[in-house]
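JOB MANIFEST
job_type = single_chain_structure
chain_count = 1
residues = 172
[input]
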Amino acid sequence: MPNYAGLNRLLSSSTSIEEQAVTYLVGEWLADYDRITPDNEIVETTTQGFSYLFDTSTGRLLAAWGFSRGRHAGARDKSRMAGHPLSAGALYHRGHAIPHTLGGPTDINLVPQLGSVNIGPFRSLERQAVATPGALYFTYWRYGDRTSQTPIGVDQGLIVRGQMPQILRHGN
């Protein structure tokens, strides 16, 4: 699992969060994912101000991150979401890696997520991210093996300059 302990040291320096924390996080996520799926093909892409790590060899999302711009007031694209597969079972939602309220899109941003997590403990940090423009919000999706499209867990984080990082680990 990723080691987030080094973030405290980085955040106490005078360099920017973008230069240090994102580089650190991406390195931790890639090292962790490589242990489970060593023959991967990772690409990074950015859309609507958020960045995503995607494994093209397995067709799954690893991580998503970006800086809060406050509340996004745009309408949810319900027809686009309805077209996204929901094959993990009745207990799962089409969860947003970056919440819609922050401006997270559909498609690459949707992950099978337990409904009890999506509308439960996940919401608290999402709301804090919306209320804290400039904060770095992220999710890292953990998988148990190379073949599953359903994550076994997710690390959800919020980093605000001058505060201890908030990182929650949820089962899925």
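[summary]
The mean pLDDT is 86.
The longest strand covers residues 60-67.
exit_status = 0
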